[in-house]
Amino acid sequence: METISRRNILIRAMASLVAMASAPLFVHPARGQTGAPKVHHVEISGFKFKPEVLAVKPGDTIIWTNQDIAPHTATALDNSWDTGTIAQGKSKKILVTRNFSPEYFCRFHPQMQAKLQIALD
Ligand SMILES: [Cu+2]
Fold first, then answer.
1. 47 CA distance to ligand 1 middle (Å)
2. What is the tally of structural domains in the chain?
3. CA of 103 to the centre of ligand 1 (A)
């Protein structure tokens, strides 16, 4: 009798450990492990895209926010996507699709360049 109840306690303890270990997957479904789409933020300030290299996946959204007085754009080098003009204090968002062109620049200030590292799964 005692042996069985000890085993039951052990099984319950192990079950709760397993539940605790897997809980973060359900608490943070957007953190990558489940592959859920994410929202990434790129700040434009001092005539730079920050970060200049950003890891994304198809299905993710990128939001660019312009902190400069000058207007900017985020535009694919091959022109396949473009936020259009982003005025001071404004944001524009774009959905990352399959075969998304990774390198981009600002049409008004072509020296401003950045790139996306697009993970394919
Ligand atoms: Cu610009």
1. 6
2. 2
3. 15
Helices vs strands, H then E, count in the chain: 1, 8
Tell whether 67 and 102 lie within a shared domain. Answer: yes
State the distance from the centre of ligand 1 to the C-alpha of 43, rounded, in angstroms. 12
- Is the pTM value of this prediction over 0.70? yes
Residue entry with tokens 């270990």? 21
- Cα-to-centroid distance, 66 and ligand 1 (Å): 9
Examine the domain organization and report whether 43 and 79 are in the same domain: yes
Instruction: Give the domain range for residue 86.
Output: 39-118
The domain that holds 53 is classified in CATH as: 2.60.40.420
What separation in Å is there between the alpha carbon of 37 and the centre of ligand 1?
28
Q: Evaluate if residue 18 carries a pLDDT over 60.
A: no
- What is residue 6's three-state secondary structure? helix
Token pair belonging to 52? 């200049």
Interval 40-60: pLDDT, tens = 999 999 999 999 999 999 999
Query: What six digits make up the tokens of 96?
Result: 């990352």
First to last CA, the chain: 51
